[in-house]
């Protein structure tokens, strides 16, 4: 048997054993399904022993054994030495031996004696691939010749055994496969759970069946709630409906799904952009589909993109992007300006949206357009000139700068194109040169130093101005961030470094102010650094660039400004008028010291309160003042410089104030500055002034009377002289004449007495006229007066002595002159003044007066317009010197020796108070004419005045 | 009607009263006549000048004229009378306290002045003095009934006497007097001389006592006369 054993091929042994182990048949307990087949072998072949043998590496195992003696029946196995079927396995052929004792291959086998084998028939058991695993054997203890029928029967039964074994093997294989599957699924789930990305599954209807731990944690919803529809509650409310709808539409359509969705992150409550991708899976079972989905946080990327797009949108240059097919995926407003319309995104292929031409006007085929060329040839094009026709028919020439975009593997994914409008290229080019020049000049003039810093290489690029700012005569070779920091004064370093880190992480842009110590002179200067981050394709900051400039002077100016502001404030504090600053809502923002003392509120009490606190405003003062600001539409406007309002002090008392409000702007806000003046004192002063004026009028009349004293003295002396002389004459006559003859003097005495009495009356009248004039009090009492009577009366006073001085006086009134509404005494005072002036102008210098000189004083009155009456007093005096004429009506200007110089100024104020005007003009024939106007009495009042006169 | 007569002749010496005011004219004429002085009245200086040639050398003993008159006023009348070598005394009437006019008139040749209103004694004394005034024909002789009060001898001294009295004044008193004659009030004088008004009053009282005058008018009269005394041709007036 050894030889047969040697025939077993190792490769077959391995496959055989693996199959047997897989099927789990070795050492399997006896099973009826196999025993049933070996019993069939016993019965059909009428043999005492039937065996189902499986050949292991070093033994043969009896899966079923019937008719074997002990111990083999219980052991169910024998060493390979006892095996006859080895040769069957080795050859793969059936073995039929009538008497093993006579067979040279088998007669030494110990099994002949141990098992009592004489006749032996075996059929191999082979797997479908030909690998023989054992044999089905029939054994007789008698020698016998196996018939063909017996051999065929055993072969059939071997086939049945094999079917049974194959079923088991399949089952076992399936179980093993299932176990493997379970194992790998658990591993996969574990993997998914530790994945930092969102992963989920759904069934064919789109109902979520699984979410990984990251997803559940990201949205802060337990996985159990996420399945089904719970996930949608984390979607941004604005996106939710659309997302759910589009997802279910995709799921039912079975197409791959992709969407950008804002999901709420539980850790900070922020909505972040998540790119969801889902793909349908074909299950092994084939019963419908389900989905696997992932979510990628693209928020940072998206924000960077948005920032970039905003930047692009803000550029003056037109920019648009296309996908690889040339469909427009993005464009900015400048592009719209050139195109003249808004092509629909992801639909319009730019090359098909235009009629375009070469610069010479010949049509440009679309495949020749710069963008088409750039996409086709995958190369950038710099400045191809194109003329396009807009939808409105206008033509726009521009230069195109398309650049293809490639992904990391170099595959074109689209292109970006910059369009530069060359409508006015000459101008633009000139302007460009200019603006470059200007930029340079501006940088120079602005003392702006450009700098750029590469985060990876830590190399810096900078202008020479920066060297100068930092105090270097020649550029130092080793500019670096560290060197920059070394210049920064220690107190500012922390701030600068923090700002740098913030900027390098893309979080924040400068400006930063800091102090640096210059090289060389070591002077500390203030600089301001503006910076901006440049992002690489991975969204990380790669470079920083910006400008810096020396702001030491500005800092000084600011300090000076603050100082002067403080000074201004202190000045304002000393302004005697109360100053209040309030905003457009009437809220007090500032309250000066004068305001504190005026209102009794401290600044602390007043600030933040409404103006209404100060302006009780029953007449709407507060609203007028505050609302006036809204009407002005930003135009500077003072709300009246003389608005009089009622103010309220802290103690509740009220008083009149005058408010002037001006507008100011600070930090883009409108503020109003109100100056408030206490009118209490001014009103008191006005009352005093009025009293003084009245007194002055009175005094001036006294003064006029005083100036006329000489004239009055003469006027009175005449009757007095006559009286005294006449009476004394009478006394003498009575004394000298004999009393016995009373007749003789009686006529003369009577004449004398009559004369005296008559002259006494005359004197009395003069005195009464003077007293009436002087004694009038200061109150103005306007009545309807007859101007003619008024002038005559004034003339009777003023013209005293005129005749004696040889002055010819004429008085003329226009017939039917209307009465005037005046204060009689005051107007008489004016007339008296003017008449006396005229008289004195003609006669005051007695030494120089010449008898031949014409002395004429004329007083006239006539109508002047509808409502006024004009009175003129003219003389033939020497006239007015020009230098006096100008100041004639000022106080304390006089041409008369001893004159007070108050007369004409009082006259003018009296006439002014009556609503008239007083002026002077020279006469062509010499002398001057003073004219004044007075308001005529209204007809109804004039009628009242006239009626008593008629009675 | 009693007429004044020149001692050397029988010519009736008449006072010619000139005033534009009819009542004043009539009243003065009544007063003079009641004192036995012949008086004639004229409504203006012009009217008097017109009748003057007919009066003859002695036709007018004295002229009494108002200063303030329309047309020809007192000053002008004095000038015209000087032109005509009118030798009789001219007494002028001024408003009370109008010292400057009085001074001006006397400097223009008036013999004396009276201030309106006047009492009969003052007028008659002045007229009497004027009639008896410094004429070459000797001291005037008053008509009967015209009593010359003793003090009038003092108040109508001749020029030499006047000059002597003025010379007795202190310099400050002279200053005060000059300012008074310019018509200035005590207060004004005090201001101009940097004195207190009270001091001016003291000076004024003292100078009046030294001059022997009782009124400012008398003091002025004296001062004007004294001024004539100091001039060589004063006796001849301003006759050319």
Automatic annotation (TrEMBL), chain B:
<dbReference type="InterPro" id="IPR036388">
    <property type="entry name" value="WH-like_DNA-bd_sf"/>
</dbReference>
<feature type="region of interest" description="Disordered">
    <location>
        <begin position="135"/>
        <end position="156"/>
    </location>
</feature>
<protein>
    <submittedName>
        <fullName>Response regulator</fullName>
    </submittedName>
</protein>
<dbReference type="InterPro" id="IPR011006">
    <property type="entry name" value="CheY-like_superfamily"/>
</dbReference>
<feature type="domain" description="HTH luxR-type">
    <location>
        <begin position="162"/>
        <end position="227"/>
    </location>
</feature>
<dbReference type="InterPro" id="IPR016032">
    <property type="entry name" value="Sig_transdc_resp-reg_C-effctor"/>
</dbReference>
<feature type="modified residue" description="4-aspartylphosphate">
    <location>
        <position position="66"/>
    </location>
</feature>
<dbReference type="InterPro" id="IPR001789">
    <property type="entry name" value="Sig_transdc_resp-reg_receiver"/>
</dbReference>
<dbReference type="InterPro" id="IPR000792">
    <property type="entry name" value="Tscrpt_reg_LuxR_C"/>
</dbReference>
<keyword id="KW-0597">Phosphoprotein</keyword>
<keyword id="KW-0804">Transcription</keyword>
<dbReference type="Pfam" id="PF00196">
    <property type="entry name" value="GerE"/>
</dbReference>
<keyword id="KW-0805">Transcription regulation</keyword>
<dbReference type="Pfam" id="PF00072">
    <property type="entry name" value="Response_reg"/>
</dbReference>
<keyword id="KW-0238">DNA-binding</keyword>
<feature type="domain" description="Response regulatory">
    <location>
        <begin position="14"/>
        <end position="131"/>
    </location>
</feature>
